[in-house]
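Usage

Read records sequentially. Each one opens with the input sequence:
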Amino acid sequence: MKDIYLAGGCFWGTEHFLKQINGVIETEVGFANGTTENPSYKEVYTDTTGHAETVHVRYNPEVISLEYLLQLYFKAIEPTSINRQGEDEGTRYRTGIYYTDAADRGIIDKVFAEEQKKYSEPIAVERQPLDHFYPAEDYHQDYLEKNPSGYCHLPLALFEFAKKANQK
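and closes with the structure output:
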């Protein structure tokens, strides 16, 4: 199994989108690459901790490649938007790809180059090594499964797309 950390705005919808993809084994929402240790959601919400709402994704590279997983991730974000996804605004909602395996950087750079061709503005997605990740409180984990009518910035059709995207 391999790990990648993806920030795509509000982590409730980002997690739910990623969980639909065949080959994604496990997800956990939390906070990445900020300046405080073990922040609470309430602290991160103030936009003073530097953390991004992020999803830790464990995936099976024999079922889905990192390249394809990242291509799907780009379908769920507005990559030129800075500190905003949908109606959610603030540094905690910035987009980012945080990696733990330096060998993944080449694949990440390749996907960025392909995606950049689609936009006239520069892509604003961070791409950097994971500095640290702190899991969010339990009530945030699998939030949209527990609260099917809960808030989500992503359209429902995107979840259906994700379910079908990597099916053989």
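Summary fields computed downstream for this record:
- The chain has one domain: 2-165.
- The longest helix spans residues 105-116.
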